[in-house]
Design a protein that fits this description.
Blueprint (H helix, E strand, L loop, with lengths): L10 H6 L3 H16 L6 H13 L20 H9 L4 H10 L8 E10 L10 E4 L10 E12 L9 E8 L5 H15 L5 E4 L6 H6 L6 E6 L4 E3 L17 E3 L11 E7 L3 E13 L2 E13 L11 E7 L18 H11 L11 H21 L19 H6 L1 H8 L34 H10 L1
Parallel strand pairs: 1-5, 5-6
Antiparallel strand pairs: 1-3, 2-3, 3-4, 6-12, 7-8, 9-10, 10-11, 11-12
């Protein structure tokens, strides 16, 4: 195990932060704790995560074995992902222990696609949504979908720290996987969380799947929805009413007087006009009422990128800020920054594995890497490339550029490799067979509904 190093000999740490020793020890403790939960092949998996951090550009997955922090041969990369069994819930428990939260934690959830359109021998591929840059083509791809639940530690910035990053199988839906992740995280969190979700989750199935979770939700709503108000008084004939008057977002004539109506200056959106209505619900989720805020941007051009009106819903207990709770939704975009960072800098979608299980274990390393960067941020030193300018704030990419010096100081809990002799090779007389090909699974609405009912 790595021991506490003489940080006073590293002059730059004293200038950066007077409590550098505390930050170094915290990072060492985190690495040792997570190392214990990587299961079989934990040495190779841990060294693989260090190799990812210190290698900014690779052409193939095997090139990660060329890092000086990966002390094994290149076949050990694939063997580690075949044999490894990271314990996701135990790792999430370690992440939560290192959360520094003043008040209620802010979580953000979303899902993305790992595109594998030509992987005909890869099992359980599905049709996934992915924005396509080619005009006129459908925004879909073939591959695996991944659902991610992150903790957003800052009010502004590009940091999002994943708690869970799991594959959505062909028998699951994004709603079911997201609700399962939120339930697991809230079970270990000390306080009631506020979770942020994109417009795709603004529907009745997601509200019903998360109704029993003690966490509040802020969800963006699509601008073409039709909601219903509280039921009207019973007139003594027929069944008791379930729905009230219709509330159509695109038809202002159906809007009744708002419970709150005011204008304010927002630092991100500019001058806005806010209207808030209470006790609205979806037609298929009448038992899940929520409040809706209409944010009208008075200085916006009304384009697709800068919409003039934004609809946001609060589901749960009474919000801590009665009229400005909708501002918290803007912190959700940090998860989009993390997806871009993981795919481009952490090489998340670079490998072309032959089984879904290898991809899942490789994806379990992405939260581990991101949390190490977050804990190393106070002791990191900005080392820009010649064409880069210095930044006042340490972004995940800038922390990566200085992690090699930190690893040199703290060492690694992974044990050195041991020779196991030569591989026996392919058995004589045993014929080789082509890998089977698998069809792409297309989720129908009927399958999606059955998956939501069983979730």
């Amino acid at each position: 195990m790595a021991q506490t190093a003489p940080w006073h000999n590293w002059g730059m740490s004293d200038k950066h932060d007077p409590s550098a020793t505390e930050y170094f020890n915290k990072l060492i403790q985190f690495r040792q704790a997570t190392y214990q939960h990587l299961g079989t092949a934990k040495d190779a998996l841990f060294e693989l995560s260090d190799a990812v951090i210190t290698m900014p550009a690779v052409q193939s997955f095997a090139e990660l074995s060329c890092s000086k922090y990966f002390r094994r041969g290149w076949p050990s990369l694939y063997e580690a992902l075949q044999d490894g069994r990271p314990d996701r819930e135990q790792l999430m428990g370690v992440y939560i222990q290192h959360m520094q939260v003043d008040g209620r934690p802010i979580l953000a959830g979303d899902h993305t696609a790992w595109s594998r359109p030509t992987a005909y021998t890869l099992r359980d591929r599905t049709v996934e949504h992915q924005p396509n840059p080619v005009p006129g083509s459908r925004p879909i791809t073939l591959g695996h979908g991944y659902s991610t639940l992150t903790w957003v530690p800052e009010k502004k910035g590009s940091w999002a720290l994943p708690l869970l990053n799991e594959r959505i199988s062909s028998q699951e839906t994004p709603f079911g996987k997201a609700s399962e992740q939120l339930r697991k995280a809230q079970r270990q969190l000390p306080n009631r969380a506020i979770s942020l979700w994109d417009a795709e989750y603004g529907c009745a199935p997601f509200l019903l799947a998360t109704a029993d979770i003690p966490a509040d939700k802020i969800i963006r709503l699509r601008p073409n929805l039709r909601l219903f108000g509280p039921p009207s008084d019973y007139k003594g004939r027929g069944r008791y009413p379930v729905h009230g008057a219709k509330f159509k977002f695109k038809d202002p004539t159906t809007w009744w007087k708002a419970d709150a109506d005011f204008e304010m200056q927002d630092p991100d959106l500019g001058k806005v006009h806010i209207r808030i209505w209470n006790e609205l619900h979806f037609q298929k989720a009448s038992q899940c009422p929520f409040r809706v805020a209409c944010i009208e941007r008075l200085e916006s051009k009304g384009s697709r990128r800068l919409p003039k009106m934004i609809w946001v819903a609060w589901i749960g207990n009474e919000p801590p800020e009665d009229t400005i709770w909708w501002q918290r939704y803007l912190r959700r975009y940090a998860v989009d920054h993390w997806y871009r960072f993981a795919k481009q800098r952490l090489h998340w979608t670079l490998p072309m594995f032959s089984t879904p299980e290898q991809g899942e274990r490789w994806s379990d390393l992405m939260p581990l890497i991101t949390w190490q960067l977050w804990l190393a941020r106070p002791i990191g030193v900005d080392k820009p490339l010649p064409w880069q300018n210095k930044q006042p704030e340490m972004t995940p990419g800038r922390v990566c550029q200085g992690m090699s010096d930190i690893f040199t100081m703290i060492g690694t809990p992974a044990q050195p490799p041991k020779r196991r002799g030569n591989a026996p090779g392919w058995p004589k007389g045993q014929s080789r067979q082509r890998r089977p090909r698998f069809d792409v699974v297309k989720k129908s609405q009927k399958q999606a509904k059955s998956a939501q009912l069983t979730a």
